[in-house]
Specification:
By secondary structure, the chain is of the alpha/beta class. Helix content is 37%, strand content 16%. The structure holds pyridoxal-5'-phosphate. Pyridoxal-5'-phosphate binds next to helix 5.
């Protein structure tokens, strides 16, 4: 890996971050706070929230088994994705390399930041090929985007290939593990000490059932986390989100139970798809969704809309011709989907 000073965008390296009242005062708990122009009324909403979310991070640290200094929290993973560009790439000059097909936000954020986005098709079986990824890189490649289990394909990328990318690429490697809660494989966040260039993304939007509160996590070397904290908005995670997240994290067994039910349902729905005459292939998955190649994805997608059922049409995504991406719902929702498809 290059030295971090060579990877961080030069103006960010020089940046003196905004210093908020809550950061400047670090003494013991005071009883009179007249430093932040807050209202004295409407407790607790009158106070700015903790800019570094220490209490929430302490809890997440226990559950995820990652030290607090290696945790960044953001307004969804989307914030962490955008920060990768703002921290590490020079617009109009640097580039990033990503697998294809994958999650759409990596490209949207590249376009917003005016950074060249290079795509490398996955191999047969939607497998990662480390050599092909590395061949697409040049001296201006700052970030490689990997997603495992991948969206929209659902499969895990081969761990050996991810490790090759991590050890041979001299820039930042992001492994988006938004769906790792549904998988029994070893997540990459446990290997941070081995790879100083690794950034792992997690979210409360999927298995934790909290898409509405917008809480995303990045796990990385403490020096990378420091750069991200310097660039983020000072109060990027609001108080209501921090409190709700703490409440959810105090019931991890509820989430375990949800995950188990969803995985069971997933196997049942996939088995039923395999029996549908309009389904040509069901791809293996480790997530709470699966990809299915149909006889005519556009027509079936429109038909399902007419039945009040929305799935994701991936027909126009490369390597996904005629594919629908189906999220696993409740047993009742899944039954409605299957019964509609049997009547197509
Ligand atoms: C859903 C999803 C996310 C979650 O994004 P949030 O902003 O945290 O809601 C991240 N990455 C991938 C690949 C996803 O599919």
């Amino acid at each position: 890996m290059k030295d971090l000073t060579q990877l961080v965008r030069p103006n960010i390296l020089r940046l003196k971050p905004y210093s908020c009242a809550r950061t400047e005062y670090t003494g013991k708990d005071a009883s009179v706070y007249l430093d932040a122009n807050e209202s004295p009324y409407n407790t607790p909403l009158n106070r700015y929230p903790d800019p570094l979310q220490e209490t929430l991070k302490a809890r997440i640290s226990l559950i995820k088994e990652v030290p607090v200094k290696n945790i960044f929290l953001g307004n969804g993973s989307d914030e962490a994705i955008d920060l990768m560009y703002r921290c590490f790439t020079v617009p109009g000059k640097d580039n990033v390399v990503a697998i294809r097909p994958t999650y759409g936000m990596y490209k949207v954020c590249a376009d917003i930041n005016d950074v060249e986005y290079r795509e490398v098709d996955l191999d047969a079986g939607f497998e990662l090929n480390a050599r092909k990824m590395l061949r697409a890189c040049d001296a201006h490649t700052k970030v490689i985007w990997l997603c495992s289990p991948n969206n929209p394909t659902g499969n895990h990328l081969d761990r050996k290939e991810i490790e090759k990318v991590l050890s041979r690429f001299d820039g930042i490697v992001v492994v988006d593990e938004a769906y790792s809660d549904f998988s029994r494989r070893r997540p990459f966040r446990h290997d941070l000490s081995q790879y100083p260039n690794l950034v792992v993304l997690n979210t409360m939007s999927k298995a934790w059932g909290c898409a509405a509160i917008r809480l995303g996590m990045a796990f990385a070397d403490a020096r990378i986390i420091e750069v991200m904290n310097k660039v983020k908005y000072p109060y990027n995670v609001n108080l209501l989100t921090q409190e709700k997240a703490l409440e959810m994290l105090s019931n991890p067994y509820t989430v375990d139970n949800w995950v188990n039910i969803i995985i069971q349902e997933r196997e049942r729905v996939m088995d039923s798809f395999r029996l549908l005459p309009i389904c040509e292939e069901v791809y293996p998955t480790d997530a709470n969704f699966f990809l299915a190649r149909m006889t005519d994805a556009n027509a079936i997608y429109q038909y399902l809309i007419g039945e009040g059922i929305i799935v994701r049409n991936r027909n126009n995504v490369s390597l996904c011709r005629n594919c629908l991406r189906v999220t696993i719902g409740t047993k009742g929702e899944n039954l409605k989907l299957l019964s509609a498809l049997r009547q197509y």
